[in-house]
Amino acid sequence: MIVTLILVAIAGLIGLGINVPLVGALIRFRANYTPRSLHLDQEGQPEPHAGPVISNYFAMLFRIKRIEGWSGLWKGYMPSALSSIIIITFVGIIGASMSFRPGGAHTVEIESSFRLVLYASFLALLTTPFTVIINRAITTPHKLPWFAPLRSLQILLTPYELHRPWALYLGPGLLLARSLHVFWLVFVQRGMRRLLLPDFKTVYDGGDQRNMFTGLSPIGVGFYIAFVGISAVLVLTPLEVIATRLSVQRNNSQSGGFGPAAQDEDQPDLEFAGRDEDVIALRPEDQPYSSFIECGKTILEEEGPETLLRAWWVTMAATLIGAFS
Fold this sequence. Notes:
Elements (H helix, E strand, L loop, with lengths): L1 H30 L6 E3 L5 E3 L8 H17 L3 H18 L18 H27 L9 H8 L2 H5 L10 H23 L3 H4 L14 H30 L44 H12 L1 H4 L3 H12 L2
Helix pairs in contact: 1-2, 3-4, 4-7, 7-9, 9-12
GO molecular function: transmembrane transporter activity
InterPro entries: MCP_dom_sf, MCP_transmembrane, Mitochondrial_Carrier
Protein name: Mitochondrial carrier
């Protein structure tokens, strides 16, 4: 039993080692702030007011390696490992099975309606703080110590958030974006699967494997695949982009005597990860998104609709894979 647990743990760590660089590039690509508006420089000449323009997901992956080196690709590994352990424990308690990736897809197979409601209600609550910490760990321009979690939290969170952890849930629109994402996958997509496809347990009765797919309708399968693919692009991808933007937006409330965050102060032990430049630009903290709707509208107005569809193919591929699991 102990040997099995050790092997599972090792396999999980190896899997994260592969997954974290890919997810990190995705998060940075979607978080990168690139407004299209123009402003005048000191000489009165118009110049684009934009962050680094990265055209695609793979360009972001290579940019991270060029600026921050190999260590930059594995930013967010430690909080991802911790969150995976806690989420797997939670899933085991409620008797569900799912796959989770930051900002990504969830697949679920739960027997009773009560457990389904329980799963949908608590999944967003459980994952929101981890999403915030993981996404900030990935997008911060600073180096984070691997084995000093308290120091890392001091860099990633404001003093207000450190003293009031529930403030991570109160970020404008973040919990709504996360909840809508889970609701769509757990209820809407799962409902369409039940409507268009038979239960695979009834399709295959354990007899002749040649009769395994006789109960499937090609039209139903086609409609289901089309629905999953289109909704992944038009619904889930914008939700993930908005959730990413809202998760990296820090709560800088200084009420109650809370001062600025560690990364907002000049500290000699605060080291930048990049070489002469940052990998991405984040929206200025003095211009925060005020709500879920306002975030989406502002992205459309400042950066264009293509920003809400960044790396749509990643979401579509992951959702299609999970749609039949």
